[in-house]
C-alpha cells in the first residue's frame, strides 16, 4: 500500500489530519471552479466549507474500480453541487419576484380600495404620489449643466471624470453637485413636512 493510499484511507475513515493534508492537495480544483462560477452569498470561507463537505462525501463514495481519479471525481461532484446552489439561488430570486407586487399594480388590479383598509398604506400611497411629483419638479429645477453632471454622477462617474467630460473645472462640478443637493433637500423637505 502506497503512502497516498494510506492517506486516502485515513481521510476516508475520518482522520482529520489526513483529511486536511489530502484536501490541501486538491485545493487547486476548488480555485479553478471558483473562477468558473459566481455565487452571490458565498465568500472564500464558505466556498472552502462547501468544498470540504463535497470532498469528504467524494472520499466516502469514491471507487477506484470505476477508472476515475479522486481529483476528477471530486471536481465533478463539486461542480454539480455548485450548479445546484446556483439553481437554488436563481429560484429564490424568482420567488421574490413572484411574491412582490408594485403599489401601482395593486391599485390597477384592486382599485384604490386596496389602500382603504389601512390608513398607513393610504399615507404611503400619498407619499409615493408626492415623491413622483417632487421628482418631476426637481428635474425642472435643474439647469442643463446640473442635469448633465447629475446624470454622470448617478452613473458612477467621479468628479474629475465629470469635469473632463464636461470640459470644465473640478470646482465647477463640485459647485454644481452642491447646488443639486441643496435643491434636492429643499424639494423633499416638502414631503417630509407633510
UniProtKB/TrEMBL annotation:
<dbReference type="GO" id="GO:0003677">
    <property type="term" value="F:DNA binding"/>
</dbReference>
<dbReference type="GO" id="GO:0006352">
    <property type="term" value="P:DNA-templated transcription initiation"/>
</dbReference>
<protein>
    <recommendedName>
        <fullName>RNA polymerase sigma-70 ECF-like HTH domain-containing protein</fullName>
    </recommendedName>
</protein>
<feature type="domain" description="RNA polymerase sigma-70 ECF-like HTH">
    <location>
        <begin position="7"/>
        <end position="189"/>
    </location>
</feature>
<dbReference type="Pfam" id="PF07638">
    <property type="entry name" value="Sigma70_ECF"/>
</dbReference>
<dbReference type="InterPro" id="IPR016032">
    <property type="entry name" value="Sig_transdc_resp-reg_C-effctor"/>
</dbReference>
<keyword id="KW-0805">Transcription regulation</keyword>
<dbReference type="InterPro" id="IPR053812">
    <property type="entry name" value="HTH_Sigma70_ECF-like"/>
</dbReference>
<keyword id="KW-0731">Sigma factor</keyword>
<dbReference type="InterPro" id="IPR014284">
    <property type="entry name" value="RNA_pol_sigma-70_dom"/>
</dbReference>
<dbReference type="InterPro" id="IPR039425">
    <property type="entry name" value="RNA_pol_sigma-70-like"/>
</dbReference>
<keyword id="KW-0804">Transcription</keyword>
<dbReference type="GO" id="GO:0016987">
    <property type="term" value="F:sigma factor activity"/>
</dbReference>
<dbReference type="InterPro" id="IPR013325">
    <property type="entry name" value="RNA_pol_sigma_r2"/>
</dbReference>
Amino acid at each position: 500500500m502506497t503512502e497516498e493510499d494510506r492517506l486516502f484511507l485515513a481521510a476516508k475513515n475520518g482522520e482529520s489530519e489526513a483529511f486536511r493534508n489530502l484536501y490541501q492537495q486538491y485545493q487547486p480544483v476548488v480555485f479553478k471552479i471558483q473562477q468558473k462560477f459566481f455565487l452571490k452569498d458565498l465568500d472564500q470561507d464558505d466556498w472552502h466549507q462547501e468544498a470540504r463537505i463535497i470532498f469528504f462525501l467524494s472520499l466516502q463514495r469514491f471507487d477506484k474500480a470505476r477508472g476515475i481519479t479522486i481529483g476528477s471525481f471530486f471536481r465533478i461532484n463539486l461542480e454539480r453541487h455548485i450548479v445546484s446552489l446556483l439553481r437554488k439561488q436563481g429560484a429564490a430570486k424568482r420567488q421574490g419576484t413572484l411574491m412582490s407586487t408594485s403599489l401601482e399594480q395593486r391599485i390597477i388590479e384592486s382599485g384604490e380600495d386596496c389602500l382603504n383598509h389601512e390608513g398607513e398604506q393610504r399615507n404611503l400611497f400619498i407619499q409615493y404620489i408626492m415623491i413622483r411629483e417632487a421628482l418631476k419638479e426637481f428635474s425642472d429645477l435643474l439647469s442643463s449643466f446640473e442635469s448633465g453632471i447629475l446624470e454622470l454622477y448617478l452613473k458612477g462617474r467621479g468628479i474629475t471624470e465629470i469635469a473632463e467630460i464636461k470640459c470644465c473645472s473640478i470646482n465647477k462640478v463640485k459647485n454644481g453637485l452642491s447646488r443639486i443637493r441643496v435643491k434636492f433637500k429643499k424639494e423633499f423637505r416638502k414631503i417630509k413636512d407633510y
